[in-house]
Design brief:
The protein is about 45% helix and about 5% strand. The chain is mainly alpha-helical. It has one domain. A two-stranded antiparallel sheet has the order 1-2. Helix 4 crosses helix 5.
Length: about 160
């Protein structure tokens, strides 16, 4: 079940007419947020973002970013639009990709950047992930001695290593 992305987010990044064209399978002239195709597409887009972000953020932090960070939510909306365009044959390009492949690629690059702490969310509490600031959180349970592996000295291959 979708947690933060709404139909209005899809309408905001594309247009209500485009969203209608992607989801109005019955040609009724309306699209609702409870429609199974809408729910499945939005859920899939949220899962796609989470699959990248979970390496550095908790589910709670991802939910907070999705709820409060407009840039983050817009990227997830573009992922949903890409998935929606793939489900309708008339929106699939000759290369087999959906209409919004460029936006999907940009969103995935953004998520990857967030996951690596190269970018930060505008949400204060969600901005720091487990790998932020060069630290590993949580800390290891017991301190370990540093281990060094020396490469052989190029001038003395049989002797002790060095830099």
């Amino acid at each position: 079940m979708p947690t933060y992305l709404k139909l209005e987010d899809l309408n905001a990044v594309a247009s209500p007419t485009t969203v209608l064209g992607l989801f109005d399978d019955a040609a009724s002239g309306t699209v609702t947020e409870t429609q199974p195709s809408v729910l499945l597409t939005i859920d899939r887009a949220e899962a796609e973002a989470a699959s990248v972000l979970l390496r550095n953020f908790s589910e709670e932090a991802i939910l907070e970013m999705g709820t409060l960070d407009l840039a983050f939510r817009s990227h997830v909306a573009w992922v949903a639009m890409h998935f929606a365009s793939e489900r309708r044959g008339e929106f699939v390009e000759e290369d087999g990709n959906g209409r919004y492949k460029a936006q999907y690629d940009r969103a995935m690059k953004y998520f990857n950047s967030l996951a690596k702490s190269a970018n930060r969310s505008t949400v204060a509490n969600a901005g720091l992930g487990a790998n932020s600031g060069g630290k590993l959180n949580p800390q290891l349970s017991a301190p370990r001695a540093a281990r060094f592996t020396f490469a052989p000295d190029k001038d003395n291959p049989k002797g002790s290593g060095g830099f």
